[in-house]
Amino acid sequence: MPPALQSIADQQVLYMTTIGRRTGLPREIEIWFVVCGESFYLFAETGEAAGWVKNIKRNPKVAVRIGELKTDGTARVLDRQHDPELWDRVAAIADHKYGWGDGLPVEITPVSSSSDSDGVRRGENC
To answer: CA nearest 16: which of 60, 48, 52, 63?
Structure first.
């Protein structure tokens, strides 16, 4: 885990801003998160019905704030069939951290992350 992410992994919540799919306005939520590899993972308790998940599906660009750390990122909803090992891994991390790991996992990769350009698969090394 990169040092910057390791330093915030024990924080309880992050603040994520999406762009409203109908209004085009910024929408901020406070939510539990875990760190795995070079990404953050959030869990939508109501799955695809969550407004913030719908916003991400329309526009995957997000802003994240955790304590003093602020970063832009790209979000994607995990797919149970295509990401089963990653899904199970991040759910287990969340269960360990919060005692709850259910819901639909959503990955946020900070734009400064080099994981997409260096051939490292997202979600590894966690």
So the answer is: 63
Phi, psi of 106 (to 5 degrees): -125, 130
Residue with tokens 């695809």: 48
pTM for the model stands at 0.86
DSSP, res 48? G
The tens digit of pLDDT for each residue in 41-67 reads 999 999 999 999 999 999 999 999 998
| Placement of tokens 């287990």 in the chain | 92
Other Cβ atoms within 10 Å of 81 Cβ, number: 7
What's the CA gap between 121 and 111, in Å, rounded? 15
